[in-house]
Design goal:
The complex is a heterodimer of chains A (281) and B (202). Chain A has 281 residues and is an alpha/beta fold. Chain A is 40% helix and 25% strand. Chain A folds into 2 domains: 101 residues, no CATH class; 126 residues, no CATH class. Chain A contains 8 helices and 10 strands. In chain A, helix 2 packs antiparallel against helix 3 and helix 6 packs parallel to helix 8. Chain B is α/β, with parallel strands linked by helices. Chain B has one domain: fumarase (Alpha-Beta Barrel). Chain B has a 5-stranded mixed barrel with strand order 2-3-4-5-7. In chain B, helix 1 links the parallel strand 1 and strand 2. Chain B is globular, with a radius of gyration of 17 Å. Classes of the chains: A alpha/beta (281), B alpha/beta (202). The structure holds iron/sulfur cluster.
Chain lengths: 281, 202
């Protein structure tokens, strides 16, 4: 059965999601930050982690964005095959939601029209949108505003199959170490392994939208997530990069089949303001 | 150590600051990030053609500094681009941006009298050298704590470049604005020392 969804619905939801994402973190992120404040060994690190919690309270109560970099809006739209959209073009409806959300939510407009000419679009559009077709008659929207302090520190490595899992570990550690204080630690590290050049980057981005309390279903990947988190937290970078035992809150890894000749690895760094809101229409 | 300082930040003040100190700043600070810095350089380049190098201003500096839109001598510049203010508030969320993007411009401004930089993240050796040469200081504010930091900002006025939106130059009045000394006037770098202290073998 075909189900009709009005694109106004989509716009309205995205508008609300932009505001929500920039003022409240998801519960798993909240919990992770609380736990980190308890376990942090460095006095200054502990103080910073407590300030981050205070910051979250002020953000929610006074409606001040958690971070002034309210990001470029990344949207994952998973569209059920039985959905029919009525109204404007879906892409326009999504961008209209971003436009309204960033305006009404007093969010910063951080998007430039052209990467070289750099004129601000003044409404934070366009969003970066990833569509996929799935089963069913619903639309699942995930909005993840992405700050660029951490985005700028992300990397892609086209490893050789012979580099194996050790090569992957090295890639992750090098990226985190280079990112250091620039990426506003404690970070969340999203990793994509496999696919092609662009697919592994997408996997890494998607990994960031997974709960930081969940692990991969694949046993060796789960082990790798745990091992990498342990190792990253031994780097000493700490909260704000000012030294400590909490450098990352989680390492989320997604994998995909790849070519016999390759081992692509993408490491997408996110700061502690790891924003994502999910809604199903 | 916790310290309270007031602007302007002179060499007498920076001399007493050490990497790792927790400092509360009160007074006037200026806001500028990428696009504003690029314009500062253009203004300076243009002025350079008109001044003989040895001409000095009242502060005994090269007169070039006077062409900038705010008094540079002993100024603190905050690398930041706020979110829009809601009605009745001076500013929106207001945390630091990555300082390394200003590395290309910072030494020239420090040589012309700027004393303090507030941002987050690593600096190049050229910036560190300029800090030492000018007895300046680099402070880090907590990245991603823009709501909290906005509470220390009592007043915000546009200085210039309003067309740049979030990248305009602002003059802020701050009260007990919390920062950490990362690079002091002797070139000590907390990012390096503190990380080594907490690094563990795996
Ligand atoms: S990296 Fe994250 S916390 Fe830091 S300034 Fe950017 S969005 Fe904010």
């Amino acid at each position: 059965m075909i189900r009709t969804i009005k694109t106004e619905e989509v716009t309205k939801n995205i508008r609300e999601m932009c505001i929500e994402a920039n003022h409240y973190l998801s519960r798993d992120m909240d919990n992770a930050l609380k736990k980190a404040a308890d376990s942090e060994q460095a006095p200054l690190g502990k103080k910073i982690l407590c300030q981050l919690q205070e910051n979250l309270i002020i953000a929610g109560e006074d409606m001040i964005p958690i971070c002034q970099d309210t990001g470029m809006a990344v949207i994952f739209a998973e569209i059920g095959q039985e959905v029919h959209f009525d109204g404007m073009l879906l892409e326009e409806a999504l961008n209209e939601g971003v436009r309204q959300g960033y305006r009404e939510g007093f969010l910063r407009k951080s998007v430039v029209k052209d990467p070289i000419l750099r004129e601000n679009t003044k409404d934070n559009t366009p969003a970066v949108i990833h569509y996929s077709m799935v089963e069913g008659d619903k639309v699942k929207l995930t909005l993840a505003p992405k700050g660029f302090g951490s985005e700028n520190m992300s990397r892609i490595f086209m490893l050789k199959p012979a580099d194996g899992i050790e090569g992957v570990k090295q890639a992750i550690l090098t990226t985190v170490e280079d990112a250091g204080p620039n990426a506003c630690p404690p970070m969340v590290v999203g990793v994509g392994i496999g696919g092609t050049f662009e697919k592994c980057a997408l996997l890494a981005k998607q990994a960031l939208t997974r709960s930081v309390e969940e692990h991969s279903q694949i046993p060796y990947v789960k082990d790798l997530e745990e091992e990498m988190l342990r190792k990253i937290n031994c780097l000493g970078i700490g909260p704000g990069g000012l030294g400590g035992t909490t450098t990352a809150l989680a390492v989320n890894i997604n994998t995909y089949p790849t070519h016999i000749a390759g081992l692509p690895v993408a490491v997408n760094i996110c700061c502690h303001v790891n924003r994502h809101v999910v809604r199903v229409i | 150590m916790d310290k309270h300082i007031a602007t302007p930040i002179t060499a007498e003040v920076t001399k007493e600051l050490h990497a790792g100190d927790y400092v509360y700043i009160s007074g006037t600070i200026y806001v500028a990030r990428d696009a504003a810095h690029k314009r500062f350089m253009e203004v300076l380049d243009k002025a350079e053609e008109q001044f003989v190098p040895e001409q000095q201003n009242e502060a005994g500096r090269n007169k070039l500094a006077d062409v900038l839109p705010f008094p540079l001598e002993n100024a603190a510049v905050y690398y930041m681009g706020p979110s829009p203010a809601r009605e009745g508030r001076p500013i929106g969320s207001a945390g630091p941006t990555t300082a390394s993007r200003m590395d290309k411009y910072a030494p020239r401004l420090l040589d012309l009298g700027q004393k303090a930089m507030i941002g987050k993240g690593k600096r190049t050796q050229a910036v560190i050298d300029a800090i030492v040469r000018n007895q300046a200081v680099y402070f880090a504010a907590v990245g991603g704590a823009g709501a909290l930091l906005s509470k220390c900002i009592k007043k915000s006025d546009l200085v210039c470049y309003g067309d740049l939106g979030a990248e305009a130059v602002l003059k802020l009045e701050v009260e007990d604005f919390p920062v950490v000394v990362v690079i002091d006037c002797e070139g000590n770098n907390l990012y390096e020392t503190a990380v080594k202290k907490y690094a563990q073998e795996t």
